[in-house]
Amino acid sequence: MQTKYHNHADKIILVAEDEDLNYLLIQEIFKKNKVKLIRAKTGRQVIDIFKENSNIDLILMDIKMPEINGYEATRIIKEIRDVPIIAQTAYAMAGEENKSKKAGCDEYITKPININKIRSIVEKYLNR
Fold first, then answer.
1. Residue 101's pLDDT is what?
2. pLDDT band at 4 (very low <50, low <70, confident <90, very high)
3. What pLDDT does residue 92 have?
4. pLDDT at position 73, please?
5. 6 part of a folded domain
6. Residue 29 or 94, more confident
7. Are 69 and 63 in contact (CB under 8 A)?
8. CA-CA distance, 19 to 113, in Å (whole number)?
9. How many Cα atoms within 13 Å fall on the side-chain side of residue 117?
10. In which region does residue 37 sit, left (phi positive, over 0), alpha (psi from -120 to 50) or beta (all else)?
């Protein structure tokens, strides 16, 4: 199946990811879409960057982040502004998806990341 790449040069995704390899994969996944990526390596950075950039269109939120975990960062961000947040975690234990939704995440994906699934979810929110 051929994936259609939509040009999202005007869109900004904040990527909360402390692992370099995972971030490089995300860069590769969205390179053809021309979306602008901003990286945060800690939960505190996610919140600070979000506060400083009112034009962020979507957040890919790693749940296991240093300083402040993704659940708490999501709660704080959702109090500031309602932005789509996609939780991503390597710890797909029972109840994690429900826990992420309760924290305010709009979607939930597990690692290793399914490339077509993440593209499809991101497209859904960027095309609103």
1. 87
2. low
3. 64
4. 97
5. no
6. 29
7. yes
8. 13
9. 11
10. beta
Residue 56 belongs to domain with CATH number? 3.40.50.2300
Task: Please name which of 30, 46, 55 lies closest in space to residue 121, comparing C-alpha atoms.
Answer: 30
How far apart are the C-alpha atoms of 56 and 36, rounded to whole Å?
Answer: 10
Q: Tell me the C-alpha to C-alpha distance, in Å, between residue 28 and each of 22, 78, 82.
A: 10, 28, 27
The DSSP result for the chain, as a single string, is -PPPPPP-TT-EEEEE---HHHHHHHHHHHGGGT-EEEEESSHHHHHHHHHH-TT--EEEEESS-SSS-HHHHHHHHHHH----EEEEES---TTHHHHHHHHT-SEEEESSP-HHHHHHHHHHHHT-
Phi/psi of residue 65, each to 5°? -115, 150
Residue at 5 is within a domain: no
Find residue 4's DSSP bridge partners: none
Beta bridge partners of 15: 39, 60
Residue 28 located in a structural domain: yes
